[in-house]
Amino acid sequence: MTFRPGMRGAVVLALSSLALTACSAGSLGSSDDTGGGGSVTITYLIGNQDQDIKTADQLVKDFTAKNSGITIKTETRPAGTEGDNLVKTRLATGDMPDVFGYNTGSLFQAIAPQKNLVSLSDQPYIKDLDENFTKTVTADGQVYGVPGGGFMGGGVLYSIPVYTKLGLKIPTTWAEFMANNAKIKAAGGVAPVIQTYGETWTSQLFVLGDFHNVAAAEPDFADRYTKNQAKYATSAAALKGFEHTEAVHDAGYENNDFASAKLPDGLRMLAQGKGAHYPNLTGTVANMVSTYPEAAKNVGFFALPGDDASKNGLTLWTPGGNYIPKTTTGDKLDAAKKFLAFLASPEGCASLSKAAAPTGPYAVKGCTLPADVPQAIKDMQPYLDKPGGSSLALEFLSPVKGPSLEQITVEVGSGIRKAKDGAARYDEDVKKQAQQLGLAGW
Fold first, then answer.
1. Which residues lie closer than 8 Å to 240 by C-beta, 6 or more apart?
2. DSSP letter at 122?
3. Which of 97, 111, 390, 424: CA 20 to 30 A from 332?
């Protein structure tokens, strides 16, 4: 499994975030489809996890408070393959609700946006959307979606008290990171790097969270990778993620129970200062803070460092998108566009913040994070503010992905398989997926 919606999906399910689950209809606002009194009613397709419904409830409440002539009903849909098939079927049969939430990146491209969706490129708010997001909802130069949440960063969560006690500085190169680990190990009592291979998806961060560094060294890697012209095992830049996974193990920097520990164990170690670094997604922070409130101030975050400090930056996972199908017309189309304009505004971001703790900065200019957001989430913002300081994860730039990466990175991070062998095995793993997609060059 990789961190596409695949990886984000695993995280999101684990965190009760914006996962999409079993189909059942519900409504918010009036149930009068005719929208009497000159009003209009539109339907919004969402997930039915508790957080999905809570978020939609808040968005609808805040939007309709200022748009009394519009009523929004909600409908839910399944997650995973079942949900993907439902979206494709409803688009194909002209039965899609007036607005719907769905994935960005390669799965977005798979629903034929040019054929099925209303272009939003002429909407004035598009200029206010972060470019990292718009890249993932663009087809043939047209933008089709607005964000449904905040970014997630893939990097290193770290213990601020440990850094303060040992006088450590945030590393901007891998050499500095390993030097910090050496000092932490020498001081004793704290695991330099927390790994939780009992929950295998967490083993992938050193590889997938390193993509900003890969793109900085080889800007065309994603394109060549999609065309079967670049490989992890033969790209010096891409291989480093596997090499770093191996290096941390070989140096003895992992916690003693790394093979069996799971995500809750890792978050506990970090929150209690028993581990200094935990490579992970910022989407895990809310769960950690809910259990260990002191982690809001005691845990920070930095991007995975590479070789060049001047190019240090963050790998990002984008929020899901919200779209309008071409079957939405007339007054319903006008209402749907107003709703998306709200979602793509600071007011929309504020509404999202009321419903759930942000996983990272919002993809809309002018949106600010709440003052009480955890420090680790605040630490993401400078990377987004810096030109060239952030890049999309590979899954948003290429449909090529394989199901076995998490098993391979566990092997590499456990000393069972060497980095070069692991990278070559993953290159072989992605081949079937690429061939199933019918990609040229495979």
1. 174, 210, 213, 214, 306, 307
2. T
3. 111
